[in-house]
Amino acid sequence: MEKEFKIGAIIKPHGVHGEFKVYSTTDDNERFKKLKNVIVRTAKDEFTAKVVSVKASDTDVILKIEGYDTPEAIEKLRKAELFVTRDNAVKLKKNEYFVADLIGLKVTDTDTGDELGILTDVLQTGANDVYEVTMSEEKKVLIPAIKECIRSVDIEAGNMEVHLLPGLLDL
Q1: CA 4, CA 26: separation in Å to the nearest integer?
Q2: How high is the mean pLDDT in each 10-residue block of the chain (171 residues)?
Q3: Which domain holds residue 11?
Q4: Under DSSP, is residue 161 helix (H, G, I), strand (E, B) or coil?
Q5: One domain, residues 145 and 105
Q6: In a domain, 94, yes or no
Q7: Per-residue pLDDT at 137
Q8: Where does a domain end: 21, 56, 88?
Q9: Residue 166 DSSP SS3
Q10: So what's the pLDDT on residue 1?
Q11: CB 159 within 8 A of CB 106
């Protein structure tokens, strides 16, 4: 399991007081408002910074961290990635999982007991997520993340059991 989760990257300075615009990689920008600390990782360095202020909307996140008070200081952090520890990640509801924890799970067909492959990607669509399972170099199957298909997920054991609806393997 991942110890840290990427929540975004610094795009550019915003204003003249050391704020910066964030490219968010989370599904809910409101999560930034609860941040107390963030891990900043550049190509050469990594440090934990105290979050001073946050402005978040559905489309934008503006962040300010302690010790960075000018656009010039932020410019040096351009493209730095932002992470949180698992302890500071958003709390999940029942049957919700972090994408980072799902990637790499072994996927098994509950009807046949056959191993289908490895979950290699999570596609986020409007209605529900779709799990991409790589069966071989040439073959992949897309499985909707709905209760009719996903029978069990065991992150600790690294397994997911699925029921394939008719036609899913015929694509």
Answers
A1: 13
A2: 88 95 89 92 95 91 96 96 90 86 95 94 88 91 93 95 83 50
A3: 4-88
A4: strand
A5: yes
A6: no
A7: 85
A8: 88
A9: coil
A10: 67
A11: yes
The answer to whether residue 75 is domain-embedded is yes
Residues 129, 66: one domain?
no
State the pLDDT at residue 167.
Answer: 77
Domain count, the chain: 2
Contacts of 40 (CB under 8 A, 6+ apart): 10, 46, 47, 48, 49, 65, 77, 80, 81, 82
Q: What's the predicted TM-score (pTM) here?
A: 0.75
pLDDT of the residue at 170: 62
- Helix (H, G, I), strand (E, B), or coil: what is residue 6? strand
Query: What pLDDT is recorded for position 26?
Result: 85
Residue type, 65: I
Report the SS3 class of residue 170: helix
The domain that holds 81 is classified in CATH as 2.40.30.60
- What confidence score (pLDDT) does residue 154 get? 94
DSSP string covering 74-128, please? HHTTTT-EEEEEGGGSPPPPTT---HHHHTT-EEEETTT--EEEEEEEEEE-SSS
> How is residue 40 written in tokens?
């900043």
93 domain residue, yes or no: no
Closest CA to 7 of 74, 86, 95, 104: 86
63/161 Cα distance (integer angstroms): 40
* DSSP SS3 for 55: strand
